[in-house]
Amino acid sequence: MDDPGPERTIPAGGRFAAFPDSAGGAADAARLAARGCRTLSHPSGRPWIVGRWRHSDLVHIAAGPLRLAVIGLCPVTTTELARAAASITRPEQVAALAGRWPGSFHLAAARDGWVWVQGGVAEVRRVFLARTGRGPVAASHAALAAWLSRAPVDEGRLAVRLASPAATPLAELTPWRGVDAVPGGSGLRLDRDGTARTVRWWRPPEATAPLREGAPLLRTALRDAVATRVPEGAPLGADLSGGLDSTSLCFLAAEAGASLVTATIQWTGGGNTDAEWARRAAGRLPLRERFAYRGDALPPFFSHTGRPGPVLDEPLLVRDLDQQGPFLRGMLGHGAVTRLSGLGGDHVVQAPEQYLFALVRRRPATAARTVRAELAEHRWPTVRTLRTLLAPPSHTAWLAGLAGAVRSGVRVPGRLQPWGPVPVLPPWASPLAREAVAALLEERAAAGAGPLDPRPALHARLALARSAGRSAGLVEELYAGVLPTHAPFCDDAVVAASLAVRPEESADPFAYKPLLTAAMAPVVPAGLLLRDTKDSSVVHWYEGLEHNRGALAALAGDSALAALGLVDGRRWREALLSPRQASGSPPAFEKSLALEIWLRDRVRGADDPFPRPLALDDLLTVHPEDLRSLALEERT
User: Fold this and answer.
1) For the segment 5-51, what is each residue's pLDDT rounded down to a tens digit?
2) I need a labelling partner for 481 at 20 to 30 A (CA). Which of 117, 369, 527, 614 fits?
3) 522 in helix, strand or coil?
4) Could you tell me the pTM of the whole model?
5) How far is CA 329 from the centre of its chain?
6) Measuring CA to CA, which residue among 249, 255, 218, 248 is closest to residue 515?
């Protein structure tokens, strides 16, 4: 294998493409290999996998006519892989290996002219298909597939990213025309004759386990996910926000013997208690070091807006990117080699409101009380909600209805939706953008696009898990060059364990995260499981926008979104210059801002299949003396 250079610049899990065992595939692979890559070969000697990955991220074997590789975070050894590969003759047998090991990884295989590549269920690890002039290619990143196939950015697919949130069939579209994502739980098969097809290898478990049986399953899955990430002989960085998700991960890491270096930000809005809950947790953890700072003492939100950022696969706005600098420097200074994040906890362990559809059918007597509570909390119209619960529209009809609402610009009133939240375009979206999103929804409806699962409760849970997984993958990519950051809640085994529990028992209007609380009861001290609130940083959000008016004004004066016709230039400029007065919601504003910045940064990295990741020096520097004076608590 060729040496691609310093491993610090390589994303966790690598960036690679897989090619069929053909002359066309070899020619496509040669173009990528010329960029300084490592190469794994087919039995024929032609290139099979080409890319950049860390030595520790790859385990592979060559056994007769079979080539098998695990790329990413996985504890499997070559001996175990060879034992597992002994009887593999078909891609379906490769897919079955995914459930054997914890972690987050790609599986790839080649034999007898076929190539198989699969990612994860929650789409932290993804697979993309594109076609060059010579045949199909599979890639770990959409941008790499687009580079190989010279695919153009698609304005309609970009318009989808203005919607908050995007409907599930559209959320998985890549920004490039001709580059398609393989759905989570499916794999991609390439054959030397130029054919390519997607094959589903995973199905969700039956959601029938009661809480008392499901909680131990989730605890075991999370315990394995965290233990896999605890480094030997080196400290482990971890977010300790004070929330239940990050607190659970820290106690599991301590149980696994981690030497923890934790980070906490205290938001100064009225009633915020994050710092107090984090302090209580820290008092019960064996910490190597703890960093805790006031939010208003660190660089303001959005401070990175005016500076170039890493070119990620998709738009991602990390409003507190520069605030992370002191924590990253502190963790690295204490020898941390990886970092845990609670990202995904809100999405994976708690069923969304669509759990009501399962409840009214499984336990109608219990449903009456629960539905009344949800009606009061969400202020849904009673008659319409009951009608939807008893006779939900088909997924196709629902998509068609969304298309009409998007095209007309009429805001759908708040009510229970069977197949997920309704996508809303911001007031600055142009008629072109509205028409593009509506047309894509109609296209999916006309094609008979089905839900992720025919049961609304499970469909909604899968959609949330995939959304969290995609975000986790982007965050991993973002911090790859600084401190690899992992989200154990998005591991396949954790997602499967959560889905196995009856949805009405993992969501309860009278309890906060009942499944996670029950799972962590033997691990986290009881007093720390009592929290049922979440803090808000909205005060800092507006202060950050005000502080960075100059950078926002520069974007307004040279808007890529306006140049593409996706926004009304005047209204978007008004939103950038006066976000307090903008009629769009903060999430809608952030999504538009993320897309604006992504388009700006894409110009710099358009011709690089391996763009430079974020470096520590790219973040604002806070002087160590200032950090000491700003610390709420810093303890060794």
Assistant:
1) 456 556 656 899 999 999 999 999 999 999 989 999 999 999 999 99
2) 117
3) coil
4) 0.94
5) 24
6) 218
